Amino acid sequence: MAYSEKVIDHYNHPRNVGSLDKNDPNVGTGMVGAPECGDVMKLQVKVNPTTGVIEEAKFKTFGCGSAIASSSLATEWLRGKTVDEALAIKNTDIVNELSLPPVKIHCSVLAEDAIKAAIGDYKKKAAGN
Amino acid sequence: MPEESKRMAHLRDKLKDRLLANLDEVYINGTMESRLPNNLNISFAYVEGESLLMGINEIAVSSGSACTSATLEPSYVLKALGAGDDLAHSSIRFGLGRFNTEEQVDYVSDKVIDVVNKLRELSPLYEMFKEGIDLSKVQWTAH
């Protein structure tokens, strides 16, 4: 398996690993994938409710090096973006940045799903208040 | 020849014992009784096999993970041995040989323990397990 240098870097130095408080009204949590598929990503964002800017993002991933890199990269990109800018992130952006081979494209799709799930969860909580 | 089998089994058992002593949630795939003396197939729960291989890339082992094949199906052999689908993705096969030494077994076990611990810090499944969540009851949203 040929991993790009960026994938290896994210694997050895993953960014923003950890968890935010699920019960914080400004935190959105997305959990996608399934253990039977060998890929599970948990992505969390903490949004400033006044500005709509994502101030913090954290991830935890069960999966191959490409899956770990995709979700680590996602948290790097999310920080500082508004919620709407975050929703514009496409899996193809991740594929290009990490030079993912065809067999690992599904890792980038899962990362995009995780971003949308986390933001969707935040929006649902914000609407409920 | 028989001495070689005993030597292999000793090294293999040393590897197994060190891993079991230093990590929780480790499962041997298959029986230890009817097994080649130099073989060890182990699952490290909550850690995906290919990511483990990446962390020990100077050591030649193989993974039961089928992530790199055309399907996402785990190894049919491990499934036949009773491994759940998630554990089958977390398995590593160690094959010891004539030229392996005690020092190499020590090195490999230390390295594997270190990488498993690092990957469990990254693992949402291990986090849920530690929180007491029954993973078999979770509704997963696979795409």
- What is the CATH H-level superfamily of chain B? Aspartate Aminotransferase, domain 1
What is the overall silhouette of chain B? globular
Mean pLDDT of chain A, to the nearest integer, reads 96
CATH topology of chain B: Aspartate Aminotransferase, domain 1
Q: Numbering strands along the chain, what is their spatial order in the largest sheet of chain B? A: 1-2-4-3
Low-pLDDT stretches of chain B: 65-70
- Output the CATH class name of chain B: Alpha Beta
Characterize the main sheet of chain A: 3 strands, antiparallel
CATH architecture group name of chain A: Alpha-Beta Complex
Strand residue content of chain B: 5-15%
Fold-level CATH name of chain A: Sufe protein. Chain: A
Gap between N and C termini of chain B: 51 Å
- Compute the number of helices of chain B: 6
This entry's quaternary arrangement is heterodimer
Order of helices and strands of chain B: HEEHEHHEHH
Q: Structural class from helices and strands of chain A?
A: alpha+beta
CATH class of chain A: Alpha Beta
Contiguous runs where pLDDT drops below 50 for at least 5 residues of chain A = none
Radius of gyration of chain A: 14 Å
Counting structural domains of chain B, the number is 1
CATH architecture of chain B: Alpha-Beta Complex
